[in-house]
Amino acid sequence: MSFPTHRPRRLRRTEGLRGLVRETRLTTAGLIYPMFVCPGTNVRQGVSSMPGVAQQSVDQIVEECREVEALGLPGVILFGLPESKDATGTSSTQPQGVVQRAVEAIRKASLKLVVITDVCLCEYTDHGHCGVIENGEIANDATLGILANQALSHARAGADIVAPSDMMDGRVAAIRDKLDDHKFENLPILAYAAKYSSAFYGPFREAAQSTPQFGDRRSYQMDPANAREALKEVALDLEEGADMVMVKPALPYLDVIRRVREKFDVPMGAYNVSGEYAMVKAAAANGWLDERRTVLEIITGIQRAGADIILTYHAKDVARWLAP
Ligand code: PBG
User: How far is the CA of 178 from the centre of ligand 1 (A)?
Assistant: First the structure.
């Protein structure tokens, strides 16, 4: 029953045949483009470790969103670089905050894009941690109310989805409660459920100016060695009311993406993070990798592992490459 009866190469002979039997069909339908909103007008400040990515003021964000929509991409996720930072991330909850204003402006521009907002404190605290500090530690419960207020302010501005990335225990429930209390019971939560403490966030911390000023994030983000624990985190977030979950980063955690996909029947996202992007960009710039083939293979791999939604800085390029 094997060779010469079976010859798998028969179905690889032409592009027509390969296309017919392709198991993973890449489309832009699940790609989300991350963007960084900063104060001011007419600001477009490139991020050196992420070629092609910039910190942009609200007016520029709206312009790029038009481009993103025209490319056929379904949505964006917004991160904020506030005008001021303090110990409790006060600027993250204000109606006049950068992200809130950006969401309003995108809404006003009548774009159909799905607007996701990242809910976290690290970009807004002067110490750069994702929660408030009590006795030298990142305090879990004292952080929840601030995250909930931040999510509510995003909802009021017109966000379509809020996405908590802080990794505090109980934050999905706190956000769900707060939203429901204010008549936002129809606003979905995309939980960064299995977010690992990763070296691959390095370039993002330049982009979002969110490097912790002391210590690291290991007391709240997950240990890269753990996969079973990811299933527990996902189960807890779903119990608390998450509508969708995310695994992050993507490439070193394809096994986790696959295990979450097999165990849970909810939409799942994967974040192809800044460091994954920077590696490809650096290698391509040196002529060491073919950027287009590399990126399409990476996105295919993440989708094949089971992700429905992929957050990626490559989204605009992928849309151009896949355009008919
Ligand atoms: C904020 C947050 C981070 C990322 C998304 N949300 C950084 C971090 O936890 O340090 C990383 C995204 C990327 O690297 O592209 N909590």
Answer: 24
Domain count, the chain: 1
Domain containing 221: what range? 25-322
Closest C-alpha to ligand 1, atom 2: 165
Q: pTM of this prediction?
A: 0.97
Which letter does DSSP use for residue 11 in this model? G
Nearest CA to ligand 1 atom 11: 201
* Structure token digits, residue 263: 């165990």
Give the pLDDT of residue 107: 97
Domain membership flag for residue 137: yes
| 204 alpha carbon – ligand 1 mean position (Å) | 6
One-letter amino acid for residue 55 of the chain: Q
Residue from 112, 178, 183, 195 carrying the catalytic annotation: 195
User: Is 10 part of a structural domain of the chain?
Assistant: no
Looking up tokens 């982009």 gives: 207
Residues of the chain with pLDDT under 50: none
Catalytic residue list contains 248: yes
CA distances (Å), origin 317, targets 24, 72, 310, 320: 19, 12, 14, 5
